[in-house]
Amino acid sequence: KMTPKWWHDAVVYQIYPRSFCDSNNDGIGDLQGIISKLDYLKNLGVNVIWLSPVYRSPMDDNGYDISDYQDIAPEFGTMADMQQLLAEAKQRDIRIIMDLVVNHTSDEHPWFQEARKSKDNPYRDYYIWRQPKEGGSAPDEQGSIFGGSAWQYDEQTGEYYFHLFSKKQPDLNWENPKVQHEVHKMMNWWIEQGIGGFRLDVIDLIGKEIDKGITGNGPRLHPLLQEMNRATFGDKDLLTVGETWGATPEIAKLFSNPEREEFSMVFQFEHITLTWEHGDKWNPIPLDLPAFKKVLTKWQVELENEGWNSLFWNNHDLPRVVSKYGDEGQYRVESAKMLATTLHLMKGTPYVYQGEEIGMTNVAFDSIDDYRDIETLNFYKERTENGVAPETMLAAVHENSRDNARTPMHWDNSYNAGFSTNQPWLQVNPNYPDINVAAALEDQSSIFYHYQKLIQLRKSLPVIVHGTFEPVFEDHDKVFAYVRSDEQHRLFVLNNFTAEEVVLALPESLRTDNAECIIANYEHRQQLGEELTLKPYESFAVLMP
Ligand code: TEU
Ligand code: CA
């Protein structure tokens, strides 16, 4: 059995600072904006905030390109604002997790500015340089995740540097012990500021061995992480969550098995990429529910005693969950609640992405010019130049662009959704008059209160946190159902993932006349007979007597 940790029953709320709340009306969300909404988050019930990057940055990738790890971007505020945020959050028992982006820095980071000066500069080996091939072309065919080559030629010294993301995000050379020490020192500095942990950006890329063509899950990865753990957060009781696109359950155990002393947990993306044809997000395909259930079940079962799951449907890189797996039209409220219940009652630590708790939806701007995300813009250009029809590409953008998640948060029905009185950096979703926090707070049956309830239940019912997970109706193509059990309770969770009524024959073991319904999105159920008819997107959880 696993030693209980504070983050086992925590619920994390992700803030994308640029889009959360703009306190000084320059069109960009900021730290004072976040401080002004802490009471709102307290009311929701979350006890951890994952803050997407707020460090000094030229913002080529909205802060995932850091030019000073120990300072705050002026558009977000100052270090004093950051200290105030930490203190005000602490008063409300909310911990702050910093986003640690150390696979790469900005090309405007002083390390890179030095490194590019000359081949014998002391910082040269902080990054990855290779000579051109004969004739001057890039050292190899490795592509960037944001499109084009992963190699950028640098005039000054006549060599190429390596970047898995934009050319303004050169990869750090983790084979260099100096890089390791600098990063550890910086992490310890943040720990001293009183943070609650780290979310480690694309951390499974730091063990790369590019000359062998290895980027993800390289042979040097786990030794590096164990060293990081020892040198920084290991004895500090912090929450650490690695972003690991390449993780299988086996790999996730390497990261999160407590005995190995690496991370608390990782984000895995296997359920996410099921709607990408051959792993290509610009070729979206419909959700295959049986496959989706199989993946989620596999992760629940396999990490049972040797790891810990993080539970999430969306984040700042992904489309809005209600648009993706639910119904953003007629059944928006029902389906958003169903998805919340499905996620929060599984075993693991749930993450709520800003706006998810009010059922915010994807956005569909008519013109590519209204998009801001570097990945979206790069791929739109690349694919349309290579013959994909602009309409086809725009449809894919509507489906999967990262900007779906990044439109400003809807606070109320005033101009720009109460986010800013000025033109926001990215336009608001035009549906804000209907979908906003003020409206949700006034309606006792809103999605917001459903999330609030789920978060409360996690604090009061240990079976949600530690109970075993057992799938039921495993082969059903419309419902996702499971039973969570511990010595005290048996919790049956049933979710209709479709807009259709579903008639189910319940096995004997799941029938009862007096179930205790703990949450539902239609009427509470007390009797579960032989046959059950579920309404569109109906979802409920009952404690069996
Ligand atoms: O994301 C990692 C990453 O690989 C994503 O860019 C992902 O591949 C893409 O969105 C899906 O198509 C992390 C951050 O979450 C992201 O915001 C950053 O842009 C990226 O790293 C670089 O730091
Ligand atoms: Ca601002």
UniProtKB/TrEMBL annotation:
SMART domains: Aamy (SM00642)
GO biological process: oligosaccharide catabolic process
Molecular functions (GO terms): alpha-amylase activity
Organism domain of life: Bacteria
Keywords: Glycosidase, Hydrolase
Domain Glycosyl hydrolase family 13 catalytic: 14-406
Pfam family, one: SusG_C
Region forming the signal peptide: none
Entries under NCBIfam families matching the protein: PRK10933.1
PANTHER family noted in UniProt: ALPHA-AMYLASE FAMILY MEMBER (PTHR10357), NEUTRAL AND BASIC AMINO ACID TRANSPORT PROTEIN RBAT (PTHR10357:SF179)
Family: Belongs to the glycosyl hydrolase 13 family.
Designated name of the protein: Glucan 1,6-alpha-glucosidase
Phylogenetic lineage: Bacteria, Pseudomonadati, Pseudomonadota, Gammaproteobacteria, Vibrionales
